């Protein structure tokens, strides 16, 4: 089976060769083989790549359709005095952008210009984007959409283990696991090839919905939305009171257990059942399953993390795993399922508000000095940390906020919380520049749109969910009139007065510089090279450069020690608290959001693929039959889902997979169907993650009001 799609214009002679690369979507980064030339690119899965093992999901099979998607951006667009975006030359567009950026900076200061990146950018692009913001623009205002994805997991795992790597073990370790607890993850729909690694294990699934993953579970725990933290504390309480704690492991490899126990001692099973709705018998069974397994894993996903207490929730699940002696043990462990294609590498390479490449800190003088020496600038010239993604978007166009924004690889009009408010803030800017290969909803607001190359037209690296660095290879050249992001950033940097050599355009040169910048940091790539990757080596970071040979990489972190100076993992003492807004008489239901199989992220790409659009053409709201009957909602009819923040419209889907008190809306759709019109702006105090997964809502038939 193979997928075929049209492609624009004559390009490279790809008709006679095959190219091994990776799927453009999720963090599994399934390996694929591309064949054929422009207009007839075929795809098949690589049979020997261990993550997907010859499998692809519906999105992977149809990925070549993106290469020839109708309406693809092929020339720069500039908004004229008439308010219409019109074609322009690259030179004119770049001159306009650079000139306006210079004027805004001169009038309002460097922080009047902001940058918003994406978790799908290659390591080379993410690295260059962070460097461009801090060196060419001198701004602290840079963050990326990964803040909406992995930030809570990153904060919790960094605190617990001293290192943030989604899976600190290869995906294939899951093959031999006896029990896997999935907290807020639905891989059967979000990353189907992962399910091949979960066939042997008994699954314990924590999810308010009976998802496709939950249907395959040995045990489904169905908590009230926003109560995951109470459930995790209750599971740890049971592990302690039933004598299931691995005391030898806890004493030898951890610290902070007593404080963690004190924080969960008050969460006895009956109290947890009252808060979560999960029966005590099911909680007890879950803990016994994990404790009784020879090999077990605890994995979290966005369902547990996208809350105003997401970092604490992940910390509590880590506490459960530590109490049972799982992390850092061969064949067992704790991990988080990274979402975006380069969600792991994207947060390591410097486009996050508080980080420098190699997961170095912007507030550490030694880290600043090291990276500045690689960049050839004064460490004191580097700005400090800036605001998080939502806080950055919220400040756009305000008296103290940025007046200009450059967006790369993101579509916040659809993906950001309080989407209508964010759209207003974007519209208030003096200058909005969007680099993309499709006319996204954010691009439609832009003053300047710059067409860039996409996945099968570019070289680079990405880092999958298991910390393995992967090679993206170009199968075709970009169409005439399209540039790479690296070429675009180089051209702007030169116009802003930077020496040309400071911003190379060849990915291999950027990666070699990235290696030097990351050397000695937590995410050390210095021992990885294109040559080693092209030779087929499986290299997981940290992989430092070592004299006299090649470091083998670190497929399994923490086997000997954790990354804290004392080598021990940290328990966290956390306390459950309710979501920012709970249901009340006006908004009596929980609203939660997520993904469906046939669409991806904001849908800017997948909604343009005919097969995927046919499979999942519009937004829907899942409603339990009893709830639908009570509210007068007919299956297939339009309904309004409203919160205190706003409302969206979706087609009613009556199903018993939902709780009676909960409705679910996928977030892939534009316009009035945007689920993020009703999500709020409550943020996790540590990770600054918005509370996507729980809103207080009401659902009414369209045309009716309470």
Keywords:
706 residues, alpha/beta, 7-stranded mixed β-sheet, 6-stranded mixed β-sheet, 23 helices, 28 strands, disordered N terminus
Please give a quick description of this structure.
Helices cover 28% and strands 17% of the residues.
Description:
- The protein has 706 residues and is α/β, with parallel strands linked by helices.
- The strands form 7 sheets. It has a 7-stranded mixed β-sheet, covered by helices on one side. Strands 24-26-25-28-23-27 form a 6-stranded mixed β-sheet.
- Strand 10, helix 6 (212-215) and strand 11 form a beta-alpha-beta unit.
- Helix 3 (123-137) packs across helix 20 (507-518), helix 4 (151-161) packs across helix 13 and helix 7 runs parallel beside helix 13.
Q: Assign an overall shape.
A: globular
Radius of gyration: 24 Å
**Helix count from the secondary structure assignment:** 23
* Number of separate strands: 28
Strands of the biggest beta sheet: in what spatial order? 6-5-19-18-17-7-8
What is the averaged pLDDT score? 95
Spans of at least 5 consecutive residues with low confidence: 1-14
* SS strand fraction: 15-25%
Q: What structural category do the secondary elements indicate?
A: alpha/beta
Reported for the largest beta sheet, the result is:
7 strands, mixed
Blueprint of the fold:
Blueprint: E1 3-5, E2 18-22, E3 31-35, E4 41-45, H1 58-61, E5 77-79, E6 85-87, H2 90-108, E7 113-117, H3 123-137, E8 142-144, H4 151-161, E9 179-183, H5 187-190, E10 202-206, H6 212-215, E11 219-221, H7 228-241, H8 247-253, E12 254-255, H9 257-264, H10 269-276, H11 280-292, E13 296-300, H12 302-305, H13 310-323, E14 333-336, H14 343-346, E15 355-356, E16 360-361, H15 365-375, H16 389-395, E17 404-408, H17 412-415, H18 419-427, E18 431-436, E19 448-451, E20 460-463, E21 469-472, H19 485-495, H20 507-518, H21 530-534, E22 569-570, E23 589-594, H22 610-615, E24 620-623, H23 625-631, E25 638-642, E26 647-654, E27 662-666, E28 695-701
Parallel strand pairs: 7-8, 7-17, 9-10, 9-13, 10-11, 12-22, 13-14, 17-18, 18-19, 23-27, 24-26
Antiparallel strand pairs: 1-4, 2-3, 3-4, 5-6, 5-19, 15-16, 20-21, 23-28, 25-26, 25-28
Helix pairs in contact: 2-19, 3-19, 3-20, 4-13, 7-10, 7-11, 7-13, 15-20
